[in-house]
């Protein structure tokens, strides 16, 4: 996973008028309280993880920390939304659309 992938996700969030208000200085500042918007944001964030690839928790934390100050909360949101799955300290993409 590369820094350009993180930048691509953050750019997509900034371009979406429903989600851009949750960003500041190129990072997620707050999680949407409204479930439908939160799921839109989480779905976009999940795009940074390649389907079929397992990531150690340290790498997931690094990537999510580059997008949001509370990487642990963001990781929990992704798992709760079934966009990421976890076992034995590893995470993998488990849901959401796969975009080119």
Mean pLDDT: 94
Looking across the biggest beta sheet, what order are the strands in? 3-5-4
Number of helices: 4
Fraction of helical residues: 40-55%
Look at the helices and sheets and give the structural class.
alpha+beta
Whole-number tally of structural domains: 1
Q: Unreliable segments (pLDDT under 50, ≥5 consecutive)?
A: none
Rg calc:
12 Å
Overall body shape: globular
Largest sheet: 3 strands, antiparallel
Span of the ends, CA to CA: 15 Å
Please provide the ordered H/E string of secondary-structure elements: HEEHEHHEE
Beta fraction = 15-25%
**Number of strand segments:** 5
Describe the structure.
The chain has helices spanning 3-15, 35-46, 57-67, 71-80, and strands at residues 23-24, 27-28, 54-56, 84-87, 90-93. α3 crosses α4. The chain has four helices and five strands, in the order αββαβααββ. The mean pLDDT is 94. The two termini are 15 Å apart. The strands form two sheets. The chain has a three-stranded antiparallel sheet with strand order 3-5-4. It has a two-stranded antiparallel sheet with strand order 1-2. A hairpin with a 2-residue loop joins β1 (23-24) and β2. The chain is globular and about 35 Å long. The longest helix is centred in the first third of the chain and has 13 residues, at 3-15.
